[in-house]
Amino acid sequence: MVTTSATSSIVTALGGGSGIDMTALANNLAEAQFAGRLSRIDSRSELLDRQVSAASTLKNQLMQLAASIGDRVRTGDLSSQPAIANGAVASVSRGVAAGSGSYSLEVTALATAQTLVRPAIASAITPVGAGTLTLRFGSFSAGTFTADPSRPAPTITLAAGATLSDAAAAINAAGAGVTAYVANGASGAQLVLKGSEGAANAFVLEASEDPANPGLAGLAWNGTPDPVRLVSAAGDAAFKLDGVAMTSKSNMIENAVPGLSLRLAGTNAGSPTTIRFSDPGSAVSTFMQDLTSALNELMTTLNAATNPQDGDLARDGGARALRSAFAQLASTSIMPNAATGEPRTLGELGLATNRDGTFRLDPARLTATIKASPDGVTAMFTAGIHGVFAAIDRLARNTSTTRNPGSLGGSLARFTAKQADLTAERSALADAQEALRAQLNKRFASADSRVGTSRSTLSFLQGQIDAWNAGRN
Fold this sequence. Notes:
This protein is of the alpha+beta class. It contains nine helices and 18 strands. Helices cover 43% and strands 21% of the residues.
């Protein structure tokens, strides 16, 4: 403390006390008492920091590798993606499953939504009467409407003075699957009602007028053929895939066939177009080169971390488990459901292990496997539970889990816990050191006071003796 130091300096300057800086002495003794233990904690903490860094680097490299392979398998050069020759007919996308081969597509009708338009009135704020409107859903057959009894028939209430805009807002608020808005056309304001795509989403609009406020019947439509009001009828999409006739209530058709989804956009009756899936086999050679390089980057990091002389993870069980997994990677079966003669291991795709644990690619073996079983090679690059991605992803997850104390993730959890323990131990030692310093400071201050008193007495006696001696002379 500044005050203590200043007081000590004043006392020393006046000749009081022992002349020794008791505060500095207390500090030095307290530091010396705990220096060895604090130094050992700092050394252990530095090692743990390096171990956490090394283990985290390995874990992150492996997780990034798995994520990269997943992206390439799902949407990149290793995925089998569909393409359509005539994009005006439909857009195509990959479905849940993996698709392959080619298909013909002929669209004869698009799915349509029913659209009703009310005759024009003066403006959107013109009163339209009061009462209730009821929407009924169903389908038309030969001009006759049949209501679907399983679907609710919402009733919309309009109060006296309700305008065309009020009617549109009330219909929208019902949330029944019909959208309403007011269009200001050349002839005036018109109420437009639009349903959902599909023949089963046709609708009629019934009106029950308030006799005191008539006019609401002008919004109703009971299904009578009326080309002026019925702008578009509800209808299903009709198309053929490989000559097989199909229908859909929507133009968006998920998994029309395994691995293929369609969004119909136009018709091409009599002129089928072709959909083809890309062949990812041509990208396998490039991928295997990339995989070998990525694995070797990982092995460089792992070899440095487990070096017996100076590796921070030389004695770590999680790092050794990862090394063991890498040693078995090329020979492990990743396609247990493969048919006889089809590839099952990364080794059959040319991946080989060197004596130091690093990897190399055998192009000749890879080429031979692709030539002998192209479909089997393609099957290894899917996002399913088996294959290249599943094997690397499983390895990454097993390595990262904290539930297995023998994994790298388990080691990281253990290192982190030890760091917390050391932090707590260092804090406790710091508190003990401060307590000792305060105790020594108090003791030394008392001793210094007693020494000062003794020195004053000695000085007084010395003065008296000197005076007596001078008197005798």
